[in-house]
Write a structure and sequence with these properties.
It is built from ten helices and four strands; from the N terminus they run ββββαααααααααα. By secondary structure, it is mostly helical. The chain starts with 17 loop residues before the first strand and ends with a helix.
Length: 314
C-alpha cells in the first residue's frame, strides 16, 4: 500500500459548517474538523473557513446608517415630547443627543476590525439565511446537533450592538448633567423623562436587531419611506398646517419638514443604491412631492368644510 498524498475527509454537512485551516505549507493546506468558523471568517464554496477580507459596499453602509439613525431619531422625538415649551433646553438636548450618537459611531468604528481605523473588514451578505445561521445547524444522525452558528455577515450583526452600548454609556455620562443644569423650568419628574424613555427603547432596539436584523437589512429603505411619509402627514395634520404660509409661521415646522425630506432622500438612495447616477439622481426630485401634495390638497379635506358642504347639500 502506498500512503495517500491527500487526506480524504468526510463530507462537511450544514449550510454554514466549515473546516478551519490549521497550517499552510506552500500550496498545501491542512484542515481541521468540520465545525463552526472562527469570528471574522465564513465558508467558501469548498466548505473551508476563509477570513473575510472585503469591505462593506454602499448598501451595507446605508444599512448601518439606518441602524445608527434609529436611536438618534427616538432621542429627538422623546426630547421634543417631554420638553414642553422650553425650546432652548430642547435644542441643547437635541445637540447633545447628536453628539452622543456621533461619538458612539466613531468609537464603534475605531474598536472594530481593523482596530484604530475608520475602515471595516467584512463578509459579503449573500442571502437572508446568512443572518440566521443558528437555524441551520445540521443533525447528521437526527440526534446530535453540530453547532455551526457564527456571524456570516461579519460585522454587520454585532457592530450594531456595540454601537447601542456606546450610545447608552455616553448618554448616561453626558445627558443627566446637561439636563440638570438647563432644564430648570421643568418639574423634577419631567426633567429626566427623555432619558428614562431611552432606557426603554434601547432594549427594544437591541431585540429588534437580534431577531429582525436580516429582515431590516432588506426592508429598511421601504420602512424609511413609509414611516417618513406617515409621520410627516401626522405632524402636519396635528400642527394644522394647511398652506405654505402656515409652514413659515414657525421655524420648527421648517426644520421638521427638511428633516423628513432628508429621510425621503435617504430612502430613495437606499432603494436605488445610486448604481446608475444618470437614472437614479432624478428620482431625488420626488423628495418634496408628498409635502407639496399635502399642502395643495389639505384645504379640500378639512373635516369642517366637508361637513358644511354635506349639510348644504341636504
Amino acid at each position: 500500500m502506498f500512503p495517500s498524498a491527500v487526506d480524504i475527509h468526510p463530507a462537511c454537512l450544514g449550510l454554514y459548517c466549515g473546516r478551519t485551516v490549521l497550517s499552510v505549507n506552500g500550496s498545501l493546506e491542512t484542515y481541521g474538523e468540520c465545525g463552526v468558523c472562527p469570528r471574522g471568517q465564513r465558508t467558501d464554496e469548498h466548505k473551508i473557513c476563509r477570513e473575510c477580507t472585503g469591505s462593506p459596499d454602499r448598501y451595507d453602509w446605508l444599512y448601518l446608517g439606518f441602524m445608527a439613525m434609529l436611536p438618534l431619531v427616538l432621542h429627538w422625538f422623546f426630547i421634543e415630547w417631554y420638553s414642553g415649551k422650553k425650546s432652548s433646553s430642547a435644542v441643547l438636548q437635541h445637540l447633545t443627543a447628536l453628539l452622543e450618537c456621533s461619538l458612539a459611531a466613531l468609537l464603534t468604528l475605531l474598536v472594530s476590525d481593523p482596530a484604530g481605523s475608520l475602515r471595516l473588514r467584512s463578509c459579503r451578505v449573500k442571502k437572508l439565511s446568512d443572518w440566521y445561521t443558528m437555524l441551520y445547524n445540521p443533525s447528521p444522525d437526527y440526534i446530535t446537533t453540530v453547532h455551526c452558528t457564527h456571524e456570516a455577515v461579519y460585522p454587520l450583526y454585532t457592530i450594531v450592538f456595540i454601537y447601542y452600548a456606546f450610545c447608552l454609556v455616553l448618554m448616561m455620562l453626558l445627558r443627566p448633567l446637561l439636563v440638570k443644569k438647563i432644564a430648570c423650568g421643568l418639574g423634577k419628574s419631567d426633567r429626566f423623562k427623555s432619558i428614562y424613555a431611552a432606557l426603554y427603547f434601547f432594549p427594544v432596539l437591541t431585540v429588534l436587531q437580534a431577531v429582525g436584523g436580516g429582515l431590516l437589512y432588506y426592508a429598511f429603505p421601504y420602512i424609511i419611506l413609509v414611516l417618513s411619509l406617515v409621520t410627516l402627514a401626522v405632524y402636519m395634520s396635528a400642527s394644522e398646517v394647511e398652506s405654505f404660509k402656515d409652514l413659515l409661521v414657525r421655524k420648527k415646522r421648517l426644520v421638521v419638514l427638511f428633516s423628513h425630506w432628508l429621510l425621503h432622500a435617504y430612502g430613495i438612495i437606499s432603494i436605488s443604491k445610486l448604481d446608475k447616477l444618470e437614472q437614479d439622481l432624478p428620482l431625488l426630485a420626488l423628495v418634496p412631492a408628498p409635502a407639496l401634495f399635502y399642502l395643495l390638497t389639505a384645504k379640500y379635506t378639512e373635516p369642517s368644510r366637508i361637513l358644511s358642504e354635506g349639510g348644504n347639500g341636504h
